Amino acid sequence: MSTTMTPATPATAMPRRRLGPVALGLRQGRLEITQFLRSRESVVFTLGFPVIMIMIFASIFDGEIAPGVRFTQYFVTGMIATGLMTVSFQNLGIWIPIERDRGVLKRYRGTPMPKWAYFAGKVILVVVIGVAETALLLAVSAALFDLELPGTAAKWLTFGWVSALGITACTLCGIAISSLARSSRSGSAVVTPVALVLQFISGVFFVFTQLPSWMQQVAALFPLKWMCQGLRSVFLPDAFGAQEPGGSFELGRVALVLAAWCVIGLLLCLGTFRWTTKRDG
Amino acid sequence: MEDELAISVRGLRKAYRETVAVAGVDLDVRRGEVFALLGPNGAGKTTTVEILEGYRKRDAGEVSVLGSDPAAPAADWRSRVGIVLQGTGEFDELTVSEVVRHFAGFYADADDPDKVIARVGLADKAKARTHALSGGQKRRLDVALGIVGRPELLFLDEPTTGFDPEARREFWELIRDLAAAGTTILLTTHYLDEAEALADRVGVIADGRLVEVAAPGRLGNRHEALATVSWRTPEGVVESAESATPTALVAELATRFGGEVPGLTVTRPTLEDVYLRMIGHT
């Protein structure tokens, strides 16, 4: 072939000013948040749903589960866990197929953007909305339904790590399940039933220990049950641990199962994520 | 190793299950050239281009794009290639300026986003949300995102499909502008006039094969084809003759008729005639 020498192109001769990884991740996160905040429906439904649910539940179950402990203390844990699952698992499981179908992902793949930057943007989005939504839920519950917020630093710490591990697991699973949807429309068809079934069997709408034991065992395979259980240790008096299926809040096991789901989710993401639709080959 | 070829393809093949999409394509595109892949829908244009862009895997053949194999490109390869896909993803909630700025951030040596927006003719739409753009304006935004990284090589996949004639003319000016600045361009199209207007060379692709590669005026040896001279006899019958020397024939006819030749036409095969013959529809 030819051996003609051509001078170096200006692009290679110029000093490189490529953004560092932190800046790349942050600006991807900012882009995601801007898009989210500008689509009013997603803001209203994502932030408002758990608040509406707690209002309904707190109004229906207006009593006490033990002397001095209101039912709200129990249900708020399910609402927090559901809210975290909604912003991570459902949000990504529904939106990523839409972005894939529209060719947004394909467009990103045609640029030098590192692949991880896309996921970093989604993680930042999920964490920011998750925190905002949980804060709103707690504020409304405390103001209207006499929710007692955690009283000790240790409980806040537990609240923090259970939420962080839970939202991480749900985020990774949401990214993983997004590859199951074959078109933009099927994302919510795939994700919604999974989320709804998990909510029913994991003790979000009912007291977990009153569910049939086989149902409890199925729920124990998935993260939501453990998120709820970890959060109960934060919002209910310590003595309530004795009523849990395991005889205590089992925080060690909560950490273990959620961490395991982080690993499973990550492996599924790495193995199955698609940047183009099936018909793109 | 750099050479004067931006793209070099030998024996490219790709099949989807039983369907052969690309059946042995050889192709060279020189640096600085505007090359048009012309062919009907389903001829294998997009498959070929998406293999060159690194989106699809090939079954066989050798491919070199800017000195890299697109299936395993060098680290900075993506920054040197600009891609304008068919039907690309939109960022409905963002403004033109926000999207172009965001994409500029992916490149070490990006162009000034405002300059790029002005260049594609969207300066007065810079603050508009992208969902408010017309089809043609969206396509301009696609091009802006394709060129913001100052690519050496730009792929344009059916860039003007669905444009009205005026929008197409304006778009062509933009492409000529980029080519004049030294960007190598590979465009696919099923519009003959587009290939003729823009390309230095045209490759006609049909049924996954490159049927011919030539300058637009020389496709199918059009420049050497016989001219058809036709005229009307005094009895009103239209006669015609093929001739390699139509001028002489016309002069002879003029003498025969003693001046004006009734109903005189001299035609050569149009690009469309040649093209339809090449893709097997005569």
UniProtKB/TrEMBL annotation, chain A:
Main localization category: membrane
This protein's UniProt keywords: Antibiotic resistance, Cell membrane, Membrane, Transmembrane, Transmembrane helix, Transport
Membrane topology: Multi-pass membrane protein
Record-annotated ABC transmembrane type-2 domain positions: 41-276
Listed transmembrane segments: 43-61, 73-98, 119-144, 156-177, 189-208, 254-273
InterPro entries associated with the record: ABC2_TM (IPR013525), ABC2_TM_bact-type (IPR047817), ABC_2_transport (IPR000412), Nod_factor_ABC_transporter (IPR051784)
Compartment list: Cell membrane; Membrane
Keyword Cell membrane found: yes
Family affiliation: Belongs to the ABC-2 integral membrane protein family.
Protein name per the record: Transport permease protein
Automatic annotation (TrEMBL), chain B:
Cited Gene3D superfamilies: P-loop containing nucleotide triphosphate hydrolases
Membrane topology: Peripheral membrane protein
Cross-referenced SUPFAM superfamilies: P-loop containing nucleoside triphosphate hydrolases
SMART domains xrefs: AAA (SM00382)
Keywords: Antibiotic resistance, ATP-binding, Nucleotide-binding, Transport
Annotated localization: Cell membrane
InterPro entries for this protein: AAA+_ATPase, ABC_transporter-like_ATP-bd, ABC_transporter-like_CS, ABC_transporter_ATP-binding, P-loop_NTPase
PANTHER family, A to Z: ABC TRANSPORTER ATP-BINDING PROTEIN (PTHR42711)
Protein name as it appears in the record: ABC transporter ATP-binding protein
The organism's taxonomic lineage, starting at the top: Bacteria, Bacillati, Actinomycetota, Actinomycetes, Micromonosporales
